Amino acid sequence: MTGAELTIDLLAKHGVKDVFGYPGGAIMPIYDALYGAPVKHYLTRHEQGAGFAAVGFARSTGKLGVCFATSGPGATNLITALADAMMDSVPLLAITGQVPTAAIGSDAFQEVDVLGMSLSCTKHSYMVERAEDLAEILQEAIHIAQSGRPGPVLVDIPKDIQMAQVPFHPWLAAEDHLPTLDSNQVAIANQILSEAQRPVAYIGGGVQAANAQDELMQFLEKTHMPAVSTLKALGSVLPDYEYDLGMLGMHGGKAANLAVQECDVLVCIGARFDDRVTGNLSKFAAKAKVIHLDIDAAEVGKRKPAKASLVADLKTSLPQLDCFVTPDEWLTHIESMMKEHAWRYDYPGEKVFAPYLLNQLSQKMPSTGVVCCDVGQHQMWVAQHMKFSHPSNHLSSGGAGTMGFGLPAAIGAQVARPRDFVITVSGDGSIMMNIQELATIRRNNLPVKILILDNQRLGMVRQWQQLFFEGRYSETNLSDNPDFVQLAAVFGIPGQTITKADEVDAAVDALVNSEGPYILHACIDDKENVWPLVPPGAANDEMMTETVK
Amino acid sequence: MKHTLTIALKNQSVAVERFLRVARHRGFDLTTMNLEMADEAFHVTMTVDSDKPIYLLTSQLNKLVDVKHVNVENQFQQQAI
Questions:
Q1: Would you call A314 helix, strand, or coil by DSSP?
Q2: CA A434 – CA A45 distance, rounded (Å)
Q3: Chain B nearest-CA residue for A303
Q4: A79 to chain B nearest CA, in Å?
Q5: Which end of chain A has a smaller Cβ tally under 10 Å, C or N?
Q6: Chain B contact set for A297 (CB, 8 A)
Q7: Which residue, A436, A438, A433, is CA-closest to A449?
Q8: Domain covering B2-75: architecture
Q9: pLDDT tens across A318-343, in order?
């Protein structure tokens, strides 16, 4: 068996049925081994598209995502997707071809030190130096990507090793040294909870990574604790939970941010006090004792000290928090804030109001559907105005904030979940960053829906220029955008453009009920901003909410 | 604040790059370093300087697959300027 054949064989043995990639010189033996193999390959039109499709596959299922690229530029084009997966703890395996072993270090054609480049954007990475190590490295890489806190792993395989005869030895995964729960810390946490008057649960992406939605909901249902979510956590708290305050942070809801600022105990469940969540850290939940639950010990105390730290798998640690009931007085206050600061959709203008459109979409699309976002204003409007029943139904580039994420992520999600409704919500800036993947949708007849909220601007940057840079609109005008419906039509994808509020309901119906791929191009007010907004350096209770135009 | 760490690494050339990158990125300046190979592992003794608590570095180093163990040997008092 050659190294290339072993690579494909091992992927199949580990249950990998779908991979995303782009061939090239140094990875040709692996593509040759793919020919007729039981692993289906999806050719994207750029390696970054392959990386994000694998991320979309992984995030929409919780399974390992796999992508291939050739050496040099093929591998460097994967780097952004690896960084994205690193920031958002996504189990990803990237396999890259490398120039032959004898040519490494000679500045050979399409040679780049990919291992060196990978160090800052992977959980772990390898370059295979001996053919006899290949099997063990691949099996270890598959294991590491998915164990503990998940993350991307890269395996760089020189072409000669792909072509060499290699031995196969089954590799038995070493026992995971996952942290075990400290019973003293559990006791301290329960003591803090027993004295809490104004507790809040702060939910992060760790709930999906640990597959701990059931444990989370059991905890919330028995305690009635008000819950706020990070961007990545949206969907972890079921939409009908009475005290779900939605997203907190820079563009979080006012009730969510005020609840955190007023709370006396903050139970952080698989979150990491990201700067977009906390605003001014010294003023974030300043009155609160923090109980921090995370599988990654390095997150505890990294940004905010904890009074109790439960370092373990959330499936283990969450049930250890004793039955405790949130005081009625606090819940009454929470209900009052939720009512006072509820989202409003009674927009006075004649133009399309993006929050209303997204709220309609949320109500009309199947609750099992997947929404893949790009990055910018539309991303925040999705987080604010759509409801999700599971975090695997909301794929948004959180830590890295990568424009161009949405379309290829939707391709990966649709491949992973072929019977589910999958839509990418994008902006006129982001969609152009991986627009070539329309060809991948067409090539594979994927019924991916596309919604473009078009303000002919790089809207979020424009908003900040308006608010914080004296209206100096440097390089954010995109009024020379192409006709997006015509552009999609070139790829055989039908759709329509709307410009007025009274067209929204019918257009959302057409989008949701379309059979195959479909594009809805919605022109919105170029001066519309995302509110509320916690300005830079401010505390989360210092939100700007007025509609400045 | 200066701290001396001893670190045992797997015997892989990239392991050294990997932990040095983490130290730099997390805000710890390297002031001295000694590296020896014994028992099929790299043994590193190094001193780092930072205003940040040392656990912010050791907790990150402990996550690296190549790192076998990390110990904080001693800690120097910050020198008056």
A1: helix
A2: 9
A3: B56
A4: 17
A5: C
A6: 59, 62
A7: A438
A8: 2-Layer Sandwich (3.30)
A9: 999 987 899 999 999 999 999 999 99
